[in-house]
Amino acid sequence: MTKSIEKLRAHIKKYSYYETMAALLSWDQHTYMPVKSTENRAEVAAEITELALTLLLSEETGDLIESAEQETLEEQDRDFLTIVKREYRDKKKVPQDLQVRMAKESTRAYEAWKQAKINNNFNEFEPMLKIITDLQREEAQCRGYETEPYDALLDKFERDMKAAEVDDIIEKLKPRLLELVSELEKGKKPRRLETGETFPIHKQQELNKEILKLMGFDFDAGNLSLSPHPFTASIAPQDVRVTTRYRENDPIYTIFPTIHEGGHALYELGVPPEKQVFIENLAASFGIHESQSRFWENMVGRSLEFWKFFFPTLTAIFPVFKNVNYETLWRSVNIVEPSLIRTSADELTYNFHIMLRFELERGMINGDIETSDLPGLWNEKMKSYLDIQPPNHSDGVLQDMHWAVGLYGYFPTYMLGNLYAAQLYNKMKQDIGDIDASILSGRFEELLQWMRREVHVHGSLYGPREVLEKATGEKLNIDYFMQYAGEKFRRVYDL
Amino acid sequence: MTKSIEKLRAHIKKYSYYETMAALLSWDQHTYMPVKSTENRAEVAAEITELALTLLLSEETGDLIESAEQETLEEQDRDFLTIVKREYRDKKKVPQDLQVRMAKESTRAYEAWKQAKINNNFNEFEPMLKIITDLQREEAQCRGYETEPYDALLDKFERDMKAAEVDDIIEKLKPRLLELVSELEKGKKPRRLETGETFPIHKQQELNKEILKLMGFDFDAGNLSLSPHPFTASIAPQDVRVTTRYRENDPIYTIFPTIHEGGHALYELGVPPEKQVFIENLAASFGIHESQSRFWENMVGRSLEFWKFFFPTLTAIFPVFKNVNYETLWRSVNIVEPSLIRTSADELTYNFHIMLRFELERGMINGDIETSDLPGLWNEKMKSYLDIQPPNHSDGVLQDMHWAVGLYGYFPTYMLGNLYAAQLYNKMKQDIGDIDASILSGRFEELLQWMRREVHVHGSLYGPREVLEKATGEKLNIDYFMQYAGEKFRRVYDL
Q1: Measured between CB atoms, does A221 come within 8 Å of chain B?
Q2: CB distance B238–A20 less than 8 Å?
Q3: Which helix (H) or strand (E) holds B235?
Q4: Residue B304's pLDDT is what?
Q5: A44:B20 CB<8 A
Q6: What three-state secondary structure class fits A391?
Q7: How does pLDDT run across A56-81, given as a tens digit for each residue?
Q8: CB-CB under 8 Å, A202 with B17
Q9: In this complex, is the C-beta atom of A54 within 8 Å of any C-beta atom belonging to chain B?
Q10: A232-236 and A239-244 as β-strands: parallel, antiparallel, unpaired?
Q11: Which pTM value belongs to this model?
Q12: What is the spatial distance between Cα B212 and Cα B216, in angstroms, rounded to a whole number?
C-alpha cells in the first residue's frame, strides 16, 4: 500500500504545477504579453488561482497530512511534511473567498495605481486603496495576533517578527545612521558620473548577462528579460527568471537591479531539490531573501574590488569608460544623499525610506491612520526623515506598488535584509578569509558556495531567526551593518 | 432561467482559459524557457491538457450541447454550437489518456529531436520518434477511416481531405512543375546575393517588426520573438505571437519566415469575435491557414512591386543594399533550384519536399515504413525528387520537428496552401483590380481587407472546400498555381 507521505508528495507536486502555471502567467504579463491580452489574462489567472487553492485547501490535503504524521518517516520526509504543513495552515487561516476577493481587487487596484501614478493623482487611487486596506485589515483579523493587527501581516513575510521588535531595531539603528550620514558630510562627496553618451540597449543586455554569468547564474535554468519593474520569478525548480530595466544614457544604473535580482535568483536556484516543495515561498523569509540580493548588490557589486575586477569587462563593451578609472566609478555608485525614490536610494538613507513606510502601514493596519491621511503624513515624514519634500505624489506616496497589491507588512523585510546581509558578510569573512581577494579575481563561486552551505541549504524549513543563528552563531546584531557601512563609506568619502 | 446555450458559452469560455494556459506553456517552451525546465514543463503541460480535456469531454458538455440544440437560437448561437459540436466530437474520438500521453511524450520528443539535430545523430532520436509514431498510429485507429489509417490523421489538419486525393493532385502537379523547372533552366538564372557583411540581430529585429507593421499586424495584440523554428501562437483572442529566426550574414533570408508567420497571425487576428470560440483551430483548415501565410510570403513578399516599395525601408536600416537595386534583390529571392531544406526552398521545388514527406509519413502511419527505415528512404527520395544527397541527417531527415511532436498528416497542407493561395490571389485580382499597384504603394490593407471579407470571416465554421468555393466560386484548381508560377518565374528568368 502506498504510504500517505507518498500520496501527499504526489498531491503537492500537482499543486506545484498550478503554481508553475500561475507564475508563468504572471511573468509573461510583466514581460512579453501584448496589452490587449490584459482583460483575458486576469480571468485566466483567477481561474488557475482558484484551481490551486481548491486543491491545496481540500480535505484530502488535511487528511493526508494527518495520516502522514502517524507514519514513521525519514528525515527528508519529516522536513517535507513540516514545509507542507506550514504552507497549508498558513493558507487555511484566510477564508478562500477572501483570498479570491483579494486577488481580484488587487488586479484592479494595481491598474488604478499605475494610472494614478501616471496622472500624479492620489485621490483617484484612494478609493481602491481603501478597499485593499480594508481587505488587509480583515485578513489580519483572520490570521490572528497577540499585540497588534499589523503583526499578523508582518508574519507572512518575516516569520515570528513583531512590529515591536522592528521598533526596537529602528530605535537603535536610526541615531547611528544619522550620525554616520552627518559624519560623511565632512568628507569628500564623490561626483555623479555623466558621460553624455547613448548606450544601445542590446549592448547593455550583453553586459548584464555577462554579470549574471560571473555571479554563477545558470542560463540553462533561467533567463534575463526586460520589464518596467525588475523582478525575479520562480517558474519551476530549475527555471528562475530575472528581469531588469535599462536607461539608454546610463548603463551603470542597470547593473544594480540586475545584480540584485540575480542575488534573489541564486537563492531560489540554490535551495536543494529535497527542500523545493513549492514553487513560491522557497526561502526562510523575505528578509533573508533580501539579504541575498543585498549582499550581491551592495557588499559585492558596490565594492572597490568588484569595480577593479569588472572594469575590463565593462570597457570591452563600452570603451568610453576608459576615460574614467575604476575607482571613480566605484565612488560614483556610492554617493550618500537623501533622495525621493526608495529603489534608487543609497545603502544608508534607504533605511529611512523603510522606517517611514513601516510607520505608515502599521498605522493603517492598526486603524490609527486612514488612507486619506496618507499624502499629508508621507510628506511630513519625508521632511522629518530625509529633509526633502516630494514635488508630486508620483515621486512620493504613489511611488511603490506594494500597498496597491496588498503587500502590507512587506517593507520592513527590506531593512532587515540589509542588516542580515551585513551579519552574513561578516561571518563569511571569518570563514573564508580574504573575500576582497576573491572578488578582485572574480572567484564569486567561493561566496556563492558559502551562501549555499549556510543559508540556501535550509530552504524554508527554518525561519529567519534560526537561519541567521545557524549561519552566524548569533542573533540579529545591527553592529555588523554599522561596522560594514562605516568602514566602506568612510573610505568612499576619504575620511 | 439561463438558457443552455448561455451555460454552454460559459463552459467553453472556461475551457478556452485552459487553452490559453496550454498555448502559453508551449510558446514559452519554444522561445524563452531555459532548457532545464523541460522535464517539469512536460508534466505541467500534461496536467493542463488533462484539465482541459476533462472539462471539454465531460458529460456536462454533451448534455449542454444536446439541450442547446432543442432551443430556438439566433444565427450567431447556431454557428457557435456548430463549432463547439465539431471540436467536441473530434476530441471525443481519441481516449483522453492517449491525448495526455501524446502531450507528455511530444514535449520530451521535441527536446530529443532538437538535441539529435544539433548532434547530427538520427539514432539517438529514433527511440523517441518510434514512441510518437506508435502513438499516432494508435490515434489513427481511434479516429477511424474508410480507406487507410493515414486519412484519419490528415483529416485533423485538412477536413475531409483524403490521401488518395492528395495523390491525384500530386499526379497532376508533379509533371507540370518538372516541366516549368526545366524550362527555367534555359533562362537566365539570378545570382545569389552575398554582401560579405554582418547584420546585427537587433537591427534585423527592427526591420522585421517594421515589415509586420506594414502588413497590418497589431503589436498591441501580439509580438515578435526569436525561436529556432519560426511559428505563430494564438495565446488568447487578442494575443497572437509570431516568432522568426535570424542569420547574421543574411537579413533578406529572415524576411520570409517573418512575413509567412505574419500571414498566419493576420488570419487568427482577423477571425471575427463571434467566431473566436476556441483558441486553437480558429481556421477552416491548416491548408487554408497556409494559403494566408503563402499569399503574404510569395505573392506579396516575393513580388517585384514589394521590393520596389520596400527598398527605401530596407536601405534605411541596412544602407549596404544601396549597392544593389531592388530588381536584383527581387530576382535573388526567386531563384529556383533543388535544395536540402524545405523551409528555405523556392516556391516550385518546395512542393517536391512535401511530396517526399507525404509518401514517408503516409507509409509510416499505414505501417509500410518503420522509423528505422527513415534515413535511408529520405536520402533515396531526395535523390529521386530533387537529385541531391543530404550531406548529413541534420539537413536531411532531422530537419523538421513535425514528426517529433506528432504532427503526422500536417505536411500536405503546405502544398495545398500554395495551391489555395494562388487560386485566392487570382480571384482577389478580379475583385480589387490592380493588386500590383496596391503593393507598389504599400496599400496592404486592401489585400488584408479582401482576405478578411472572403476567408477570415468564416473562422472555422466551414471546411477548406467550402471556404475556397465561397471565396473563388470554384473547386480547387491547380491551374491557378501553375499560371501564377509560370508568369512570375518566366519574368524572373527573362524568358
Answers
A1: yes
A2: no
A3: strand B232-236
A4: 98
A5: yes
A6: coil
A7: 999 999 999 999 999 999 999 999 99
A8: no
A9: no
A10: antiparallel
A11: 0.94
A12: 6
